[in-house]
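Student:
Attend to each token:
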Amino acid sequence: MTAVRELDGADAGGQFLRTALSLAVLENDPVRLENVRGDRPVPGLRHQHLAVLETMVDLCDADVAGGELGSETVEFDPGLSDGSRLDRRGDRRPILEGGDYDVEIGTAGSATLLFDALLPLASILESRLSVTVSGGTDVAWSPPLDYFRQVKLPALRRFGLSAVCEVDRRGFYPAGGGRATVRLWPSKLDRLELLESGSLEGVRVYSTEAAALADRDVARRQAEGALERLSSALGGREADDDRSVPIEVVERRETTAASECPGSAIVLRLDHEAGVAGCSALGERGTPAERVGETAADRAIRHLEGGGAVDRHLADQLLVMLAIAGGEMRIPAITDHVAASRELLAAFGVGLEFDREAETVLVSVP
């Protein structure tokens, strides 16, 4: 009988739980998580964390204890069958059947964070998996939907992930009410090599407003604010022949979305010679739309000045994929999320090597 992995989330939040569940499924190992979301003001499972747990239970027909709101201890045993295929370490891989699932978070809890927990499972799928989630699509402390669709998925498709995301309805805080679907196909991930981003080739702008804000032109004003700030900061760069280098906008989408409550979001995708990065901002009551766009642009500028091959949010989100496929990745910094993921992966026997190089950090899997 496989020994239960004992994990302590006293110094972590919801990402620790989501990543632990993904790894438990990938390794087909039972886990016991103590002090779930222990560093949050209200610890324990909230609606969106419980939704992730229940989804994993449904996918695997797993055994679970502590699966209720407020629980600070969770026991999870995937109980999958082992397949004949081997992973990169020569270990036998479990089999996860696909299917169609619907998940109701019940609040403005993040749909994209639930999707993040599912993506690594494509590496052990036997058939297509489709999961439709009702909840928040563009809410605080999580990737906006367009970041997930236009930055993270394209970045991972380069390395063999077969996935799409479709949106039926946007959901902003506090009502939520959004609805989106992620579809995954069995995928063999290639080794990740993300060392240099290369030159900036263009910018893509995805600005969204709820229908209730359309008469204020929020989506257009967010986009204008972002592009003006980018042009001011970056448009004056000089080429080798002393000419000014303009910012090339290769795509600009301004969307008015049906939603149960007002809200807005903007995502900037930076298209580099060797990959993509993204930065975002959410609208806030009392904050001019132009300022929301400028905030996203300021984050993009800081990324460009930092030198990492991926942005700081994608950095920690890709660590599980790096563990699955192997490879190297240059990240801007060791954030708290990166540090927590490093410790969690070590608990599952995956040692990440971190080497500081100038203002960046090289992460590799031996």
